[in-house]
Amino acid sequence: MTALVADAPVVDAVSVILLIPVVAGTLLAVLPGYWLTARLNVLATFLTLLAALSLFFFARPTSGQYLLVDDLNVVFVALNTFVGFTTSVFSASYIAHELEIGRLTPSYLRFYHAMYQVLMFAMNLALTANNIGLMWVAIELATLTTILMVGIYRTHEAIEAAWKYFILGSVGIALALFGTILIYLAAQPVMGSGLDAMVWTLLIDHVARFDPALLNVAFVFLLLGYGTKVGLAPLHAWLPDAHAEGPTPISAVLSGLLLNVALYAVLRFKMLLAANAKAIAPGPLMVTMGLGSLLFAAFMLYRRRDIKRMFAYSSIEHMGIITFAFGMGGPLANFAGLLHMTMHSLTKSAIFYSVGHIAQIKGTQKLADIRGLTETHPVLGWGLVLGVFAIAGMPPLGIFMSEFLVISSTFAREPLLAIPLVAGLLVAFGALLLRMNSVAFGDPLGSTKPAQASYVPLYAHLALVLGAGLYLPPPLVLWFQHVAGLLG
Amino acid sequence: MGSLDFDIAHLFAGGLVLVSFMMLYQDRLYALLNVFALHAFVLAFSVGWQAYIQDAPHLFITTALAIVFKGIIIPVALHRIIQRLGIHREIETVVGIGPTMLFGIGLVALSMAVMLRVTAEADRLAREDVALALSVVLLGLLMMVTRRNAVSQVVGFMSLENGLILAATGAKGMPLVVEMSVAFSILIAFIVIGIFLFRIRERFDTVDIQALDRFRGEQR
Amino acid sequence: MLAAIVLWCVAALLTLAVAATATARQPWATPVIYSASLAACLVGLAVALTGLLAAPEPAPAAVLPLGLPWLGVHFRIDALAGFFLVVVNLGGAAASLYALGYGRHEPTPQRVLPFFPAFLAGMNLVVLADDAFTFLLSWEFMSLTSWALVMTHHRVADNARAGYIYLIMASFGTLCLLLAFALLAGPDGAYGFAAMRTNHLGPLFAALVLALVLLGAGSKAGLVPLHVWLPLAHPAAPSHVSALMSGVMTKVAVYGFIRIVLDLLGPPEWWWAMVVLALGGVTSALGVLYALMQHDLKRLLAYHTVENIGIIYIGLGLALAFQANHVAWAAALALTAALFHVLNHSLFKSLLFFGSGAVLTATGERDMEHLGGLIHRMPLTAFTFLIGCVAISALPPLNGFVSEWLTFQAILQSPDLPQWGLKILIPAVGALLALSAALAAACFVKAFGITFLGRPRTTVAANAREVDGFSLAAMFGFAGLCLLAGILPGVVIDALTPVVQALVGDRMPVQLGVPWLSIVPIAEARSSYNGLLVFVFIGLSASLAIYAIHRVASHALRRAPPWDCGFPSTSPITQYTAGSFAQPIRRVFGTSVFQAREHVEMPPPGDHRPARLRVDLRDLVWDVFYVPIATGVEVAAGRLNVLQFQTIRRYLSLVFAALILLLLVLGIWP
Amino acid sequence: MIPDLVVQGGQMFLVLLLAPLLTGFVRKVKARLLRRQGPPIFLPYRDLVRLLHKEVVLAENASWLFRAAPYLIFAATWVAAALVPTFATGLLFSWTADLIAITALLGSVRFFMALAGMDVGTSFGGIGSSREVMFASLAEPAMLMIIFTVALVAKSTQLSTISNVLLSGHVGLRISLGLVLIALIIVAIAENARVPVDNPATHLELTMVHEAMILEYSGRHLAVIELAAYLKLLLYVSLIACIFTPWGLATAGAGPAAYLVGAATYVAKLAVGGFLLAVFETVIAKMRVFRVPVFLGASLMLGLLGTLLLFVSRSL
């Protein structure tokens, strides 16, 4: 269909992006059997990816009152759909094993796949929403979906994690909504009542004349509300358990995508606030929360015994870095933030792919019971090593570039801010390396049965990360630079 | 709009804050539920009044929702749950009632201090209303963090959410208000069902360190 | 375009690495990979030599559209880079040649073959890099690949620990360098070296950069107190890699220091020299003292690397001091000494590690207490190792002496410096340098004497066999180079002049013009040395003596049991051990430096247990700097860990608190 | 050219000839001071000849290093001794090695001596070597400091230049020079294994350093090593002489007459030096091994002090 829409879209790509998951979700809810559903799931995500990519190559649909496509969210949508696709591939092989050992019953399988599509829909909606109310609804929908999927194993810990996530999430929901209402209140006197006062593209035009005090309070609530989803300390409490107890594909999606979506929302409102001269500067708040999350997570990494929970904390750490970068602002830091976000999504999901298979082989998530992987399962083991190095910002992998830019631009502008940043990175690296040493090296421990795993998603992500660390294609760079300019 | 309209709306909003304080004051579950029902009714009146003066008929749906769902169904359901789980005794508060009240007053002062910086050309009603709504929200949160009992925490959450509805309706011509109130009602239903399903008796969470050590393999 | 050719070599090495990952388990992989990397290194060596000698004018940078998109990666070969490329590729070639033989004994080639060429490529790239991003990227890549090589025998617990500490220190260093570059580049991110040369920093920032570079490059080079990883990591790797890490990678770190401080940072302050000199002096003395206390052959060598790095930094510090006072000719002398020592150390330290690797393959032992008498079983290895020992002990007529002699000459030029601090410090540093030279001799008497001389202490030592031809070829090659650099130092010095000229703006007098090929730092009346003649004279007079004696004296020779004052000791246990050999020096220095304590456990009369002497040493650097940090992190982690186990209500209170806090901020916002 | 070569060679053989004589002289004087008859003054020569005609008894597990070491030791010592100005300065090859290089040459002599001591694998050899290197680790820095001082005074490390400068009398009396003279004497005593550091006359375990290292040597090897020891003593005496009493030294190409005068004064200096050494050794007692570091440390401190004084006084 994309061939037709060379300049005048008949069916605009956004609605396709949103429609495919809905249709697929309803189908998957009813269709039985693993073989078919898994492949349908992959197919649907793949089609969504195609539609998303078409946004780059063809004329964009004009943004209306509800939906919006601009440079900023196209990046997110593409990333979202891509990782959604690879994760569905990984999930196919992962779920097969889960069915084998009977952790998932067919009925729950149906539920799982349907939920997966709903989640994709919700996230894409949140990313393409032009209406801040709609964005709120979408993000909450995504949250509720993930809550259900986290609890899907219905073990004691899983339900507990889901419950924790649920309660903290709902409070977050409430705070974010209050913030949204306040934004409307600030807009209403200027732009009059009605839907227009919630349309982001119109808001950004008039925001300069809004009441700064209202905007400030609104931003505080939005930062806390959506920050809960981003997993910034001290609002992070749900995140580690949700990652640790849910199915690994969901952990991958959570770390790789949902956190980004929430951060995207925060960014949108940061842009609003930045456009109003008299309002409080959002930068310092974000920088503080970012640094706090980074340092906190860095220290929390040390005492971890559960491999998935450890990487969940590393997600908190990296969300902290990204928030810090966007808080610093400026072309370099914003560029670095965008790059870091992309790289972190790819890397962290790759790590969860390998961790998922490892946990399945060893039958445990306890770090203490996994050792010497590079001996017994070289492909998985070295994959994990690569992933850890990538996440730790080792060259020539992608995150090195972003961290290079963040640190250097910060140190040149605010030397004192860079010191805790560097310290946190070093501490976190110490913890990650310590665990990785024991997991990947030493005398093998635990089951050595060969893995029936699909290495394609894992190494595809790692290859992308490696490639990005060495060479960023100029169009992408221009794109990022433009977006960085938008973010101010 | 005339000052009478404003005064009445203001009256309801202030009433809501007052009822929140009453809820903070309660230390028996049944009484708490009754007060919460009152909270819902006051909210309903306020919303209805807004619907009338903004002549926005769709807000009446919210009113009805508030009365039927929050004012009647939920309290009754919680009554049942309390009976089933046999926890109809005093609410264990984390800090005493007195300090909580004082802190609540502080919160109201804070929300005023924050909100009254809003320049006056922002519509006066909205300004006052939002200030009060903010204090209701904060009081709800305060209740959630000062009560150990699951039911009372749900009640706290619901009062928080009432504050949200108050703010939303106070904002003139705010779209999607009804949808949001519906969504929230569903959310609350989820929570209540969850409490009932997971047999969460005393607390929201059964987190205890031994359980963690055993299940999660985390070390303290 | 020279850089291009070297880049092609690097590309070849990287492709080798990739190919090795696939084929490493094949039996033919080892010889193929190593010979290919040998070829690549030889090409690189040739190019680098031409770049050093034949291309005085700095070529423009080669830019590839990689790395930072708006910057690209810049590569450039100037004289300095050319010299260090020579060092890198020379060491790389020798290591590859050695590994052709040594690698056959590797049980897990798939853990060595992929990373070895990558390691070589990384070191080449660091030297080639001409912008901060490329530099750091290659720098950390070098660390990573070497880490992977350190982890080759990862099942040994110590190796895992070594790898851990090594990588932590490495990334610490990288972060420090990153901060330094951030300051040099300025807020608008001018990461190209060319741009950095132009913008000069204020005194405070410049000093900050120096400190950061000392931390960053120093931690890689092994300056005390940042050396702790080095004696752990270098021995853990396979011996040809140890040779590369000790002999070459530390030099790349020195390159980083020179590049930033002498090239990018602009004119130095005189007190920088104080810092560098003090660090260098302490490093050299402490390094050799640590080395004397070791029983593990490879660890002893690693500690000696620390000492030699100290000597190099002394030279660099002198150069800084002279340059800060605009005494360019003396700065040239000091810098030449430092660079000469860089070359020398890369030669004999690699040679010695090769030797220790040969011993390891022949006996499977690294502990000297289990060796001995190897000179009978492995005469050729013993000979080359002896050459290396003489060279590293700075004894004429070999090369180690020349560079130290030049350093002494540079020290002798320092009284004219105006600053009092330097006046007091430099003689003290000179004393430290002399001390460490003497101790180094002692240390290698111990190393060679215990390992190769005497009687075998274990059966493995008694049954050792001479190693293969490739290893011997590598060792003899470097032994020959040590001798050549020792007797023809003028050649090296003249080859170094473009580097020195470019960095300090002056040069030493031309040496090859001096009659009889002797070297003259300033003027013949001041000082001169002629390694060639010394060598020839010793040879002549020795042969003269032999000739005369065999003419007049008796040839009679009888083998008999050793006399030993009439107590012929039957058991080899009665020989002096490494520990007992070091005991006098430990008594003299160790009691203060290491808080060495001796405990004699004397069983009561009638008890048949042997009396034992136990010595415990403490590494004060570790206790003072690293233990507190580790415990601090541990404690913090423990305290924060409580937050993993709160009830939801507590977590909600956290959210609530955050909300209240932010609202308060708004409330009091002006 | 040729005459220079001759003179240079003459010096080489002069030191070779005089070395045993100096040792014999010292022994004789010591004996006389103890009211003993003492051995004949030419005894060392006869010792050497006798040793040369004995057969070599080699330990079974002695290696090639053990057999090569004596010649290396001898050669290096001889070269070093030949490079120190004895009766004339600025000889043909005098610039081959400056003072630092000469010290380093002696260092390599010690290196091989210590290795030879460890080769046979007896406990005594080990004792000797380890003690020797311990002494050296202090003596060499001290020597370097001495060299620094002298070199700073003379602005050169070339012995010929140094003695010329000191001869020229511009220098005058310097505290530093006094300090380093004492330091140099201490170093010389330690290096030559004389009382109080070591006692060449005994074979008691407690006193053995130098003797322990060469314990296993016999026959011609021992002879060569002994000769090297004699040369070393001579070297140090002539070193002290040419630095601190440069009078009478002929300059290069000054003609035979000057050379003869120089030679005569040189012999006289040797005699005085030997006599003083003998006196010193008779009046002082051997010290414990672990007192020696203090003794040598003193010389190191003196040398450093001298250097510092110069560094500082330069700027005054």
Topology at a glance:
The complex is a heterotetramer of chains A (488), B (220), C (670) and D (316).
Chain A: H1 13-30, H2 34-57, H3 71-100, H4 106-128, H5 132-150, H6 156-191, H7 200-206, H8 212-230, H9 238-245, H10 248-274, H11 282-300, H12 307-328, H13 330-362, H14 373-376, H15 378-391, H16 398-413, H17 415-440, H18 455-470, H19 474-487
Chain B: H1 3-25, H2 29-53, H3 59-85, H4 97-115, H5 124-146, H6 150-170, H7 177-197, H8 209-216
Chain D: H1 2-33, H2 43-53, E1 56-59, H3 64-83, H4 99-119, H5 123-154, H6 159-168, H7 175-191, H8 210-213, H9 219-244, H10 256-283, H11 292-314
Structure overview:
- The complex is a heterotetramer of chains A (488), B (220), C (670) and D (316).
- With 488 residues, chain A is mainly α.
- Helix content of chain A is 77%, strand content 0%.
- Chain A has 19 helices and no strands.
- Chain A is globular.
- Chain B has 220 residues and is an all-alpha fold.
- Helices cover 76% and strands 0% of the residues of chain B.
- The radius of gyration of chain B is 18 Å and the shape is globular.
- Chain C has 670 residues and is mainly α.
- Chain C is 69% helix and 3% strand.
- Chain C contains 24 helices and five strands.
- Chain C has helices spanning 2-23, 29-53, 79-102, 115-128, 132-150, 157-185, 193-198, 203-221, 230-236, 239-264, 270-292, 297-324, 328-363, 374-377, 379-392, 399-412, 420-452, 459-462, 469-487, 489-504, 531-552, 578-593, 620-641, 648-667, and strands spanning 62-64, 73-75, 557-560, 597-601, 612-616.
- Helices cover 71% and strands 1% of the residues of chain D.
- The model of chain D has no long low-confidence stretch (mean pLDDT 89).
- At the C-D interface, α15, α16, α17, α21 and β3 of C face β1, α3, α4, α5 and α9 of D.
Short description:
The complex is a heterotetramer of chains A (488), B (220), C (670) and D (316). By secondary structure, chain A is an all-alpha fold.
Highlighted features:
heterotetramer; A: 488 residues; mainly alpha; 19 helices; 77% helix; globular; disordered N terminus; C: 670 residues; two-stranded antiparallel ribbon
